[in-house]
Specification:
This is DUF1428 family protein. It holds the Pfam family DUF1428. The chain is of the alpha+beta class and 117 residues long. The chain has a single domain, classed as 2-Layer Sandwich (Alpha-Beta Plaits), CATH 3.30.70.100. 29% of the residues lie in helices and 27% in strands. It contains 3 helices and 4 strands. A 4-stranded antiparallel beta sheet has the order 2-3-1-4. The mean pLDDT is 95.
Length: 117
């Protein structure tokens, strides 16, 4: 079964184009190093829950959208080989001041696939 890294992040609406540019570049790098798929989605129907919700999870403000994204690998072993290569790739060296999102509010993690149809 495949292995998936997933994450959510809040992005200011006025920085969404810059974020999309970064996502396209990052996706190309991940796939060049062996990721099977790279997907980034903009929240469209995200009610602000009483207790939990995507916007609450990343402390999204009214001028931010929530991005939900995932990267698919053939296996966790493949992921463990790919990620260091991606992190060392000079195409992803970005000035922290120029980041189009607040990385401190990013939620991320690795997942074993349970069902894949």
């Amino acid at each position: 079964m495949t292995y998936v890294d997933g994450f959510i992040v809040a992005v200011r609406r006025d920085r969404l184009d810059a974020y999309a540019d970064l996502a396209r570049a990052a996706g190309a790098v991940w796939k060049a190093h062996g990721a099977l798929d790279y997907v980034e989605c903009v929240g469209d129907d995200l009610p602000y829950g009483q207790v939990t919700s995507f916007p609450r999870a990343v402390q999204a403000t009214g001028d931010e959208v929530v991005i939900f994204a995932w990267i698919v690998y053939a296996s966790k072993a493949e992921r463990d080989l790919i990620v260091p290569k991606v992190m060392a790739d000079p195409r992803l060296k970005i000035d922290p001041e120029a980041m189009p999102f607040d990385g401190q509010r990013m939620i991320y993690g690795g997942f074993n696939t349970l069902v894949q149809i």
